[in-house]
Amino acid sequence: MRSEIKIPINNNFELYFDNWINFKSKIQKQYKDRFINSIYYDNDNFTTARDNLAGISNRRKYRIRWYNDKDKNFNYEIKIKKDNLGKKLSLKSDHSLLDVNLLFSNKNDFLKKKENEFFLNYLCLNNLLPKMNVSYLRSYFVYQKKIRITYDRQISYKLINKKSFKKNIMKDFMNVIEIKFEPENKNLALNLIRNSNFNPKRFSKYLRGLHLFGISNYL
C-alpha cells in the first residue's frame, strides 16, 4: 500500500507549479501528457461519498477508467483506503464500453469469469450505478526515482442518470497535484512539499463534482 498527498490549487496559479517543476532539477517528466476519463460508481444512498466525507478509515471507491479517446479495453478499478494508506486494484476489460449501468454488477458476465472472480469479491456494495463522469488532462513526473507526482488540470464533471438537472456538465477552476510514495519514502516526500509554496488538503474529484452540482458539501 502507498501514501498519497493531494494539493488543490486555483488554476490561475498554474505558473507556480511550472516554476516549482523547473526549479527542482531532480523532478523529471515521466510520460507524455494524456487525458484521463473516469466514471465513478455509487449506490442511491451515495455510500462511498458519505464514507469519504465522514473520514471512514476503511473505505472503497469504484470506477472505470480509460485514456484519451480509447474507451476500448478500459480498466475496472477499486481504490481501497485503510487509515492513511491506499492501494488500487485494477482489471483490464476485454470489451468495449457499452452499457455502463451493468459494469459493477453480478450480471456482468466478464466479472463472473473464473479468472476475474477475485475482483468481484472486492465489491462490498450492491446496486452500484454510474454517478459521475470526470475528465482531465494529467502530466506525470518523478522525483529522485521514488516519488510520483501527477498534475491534473482542465477538470470537468458530468452527472450520469440525473435528468432533472438542467446543466449536467461542470468545469472546475481548481487543478490538483498528487504526490504518491511508498511509506518508507515519507520523509523525502514531506521535504519536497516543504520546499514548495503548496498546502496539502483533502481532495476527491468525485466529491468535488458532487459539491459543484449541489449534491454534497465539500471543498
CATH class designation? Alpha Beta
Task: Calculate Rg over CA atoms.
Answer: 18 Å
Shape: globular
CATH homologous group name:
VTC, catalytic tunnel domain
Q: Care to count the β-strands?
A: 9
What's the architecture in CATH terms? Answer: Alpha-Beta Barrel
Mean pLDDT: 88
Cα separation of the termini: 26 Å
Alpha-beta content class: alpha+beta
Order of helices and strands: EHEHEEEHEEEEHH
Helix content: 10-25%
* Regions with little confidence, pLDDT below 50 for 5+ residues: none
In the residues, how many domains can be counted?
A: 1
CATH level 3 topology: mRNA Triphosphatase Cet1, Chain A
Topology:
Blueprint: E1 3-10, H1 14-23, E2 27-42, H2 47-54, E3 58-67, E4 70-82, E5 85-92, H3 117-120, E6 129-143, E7 147-159, E8 169-171, E9 174-181, H4 186-194, H5 205-212
Antiparallel strand pairs: 1-9, 2-3, 2-6, 3-4, 4-5, 6-7, 7-8, 7-9
What does this structure look like?
By secondary structure, the chain is an alpha+beta fold. It has one domain: mRNA Triphosphatase Cet1, Chain A (Alpha-Beta Barrel), CATH 3.20.100. It has 5 helices and 9 strands. The protein has helices at 14-23, 47-54, 117-120, 186-194, 205-212; strands spanning 3-10, 27-42, 58-67, 70-82, 85-92, 129-143, 147-159, 169-171, 174-181. Strands 1, 2, 3, 4, 5, 6, 7, 8 and 9 form a 9-stranded antiparallel beta sheet that branches. The protein is globular and about 50 Å long. The protein starts with a strand and ends in a 7-residue tail after the last helix.
